[in-house]
Write the structure tokens for this entry.
Amino acid sequence: MALLKILHYPDPKLHTVASPIPEITDDIRGLAADMAETMYAAPGIGLAATQVDRHVRLIVVDVSEDKNALRTFINPRIIAREGEAVHEEGCLSVPGIYDKVTRSERIRVEALGLDGKPFTLDADGLLAVCVQHEIDHLDGKVFVEYLSRLKQSRIRGKLLKQAREAM
Ligand code: NI
């Protein structure tokens, strides 16, 4: 296993739309394991393959307090949504930035597990937020895109400055 480098906003690669995974190979299983390790080390509650510069439809999520409820979704799709809820979100690709985003309150997700078997999950609360946030990454969307243009430009400026100072 290995820790993967996480792309930071405004890296244009974060806007790549990820491709479906046609077959669960050793490479995909290895990527899922490395993504889980990277997410726990960060620490974070979700990570999309897009964020580690692999543009395939794979996300890992663990919103549990004890970090013992890892969920891996391959080719996830939201097939039903209900209600609206506002939560404060952050993102490992946008370090230090937190802001409120409105999303569906309850969702039904369809995906494949790492064993290749399809499953359906009904999610609400933090899990629903996290799954929607991560699927957005696969579609090339970062949560700051829900904020005003002014906020987005401030965030871009702040992160570019951080990146320059880190060099
Ligand atoms: Ni994120």
Summary: The radius of gyration is 15 Å. Residues 91-93, 133, 137 surround nickel (II) ion (CB under 6 Å). The chain has one domain: 12-166.
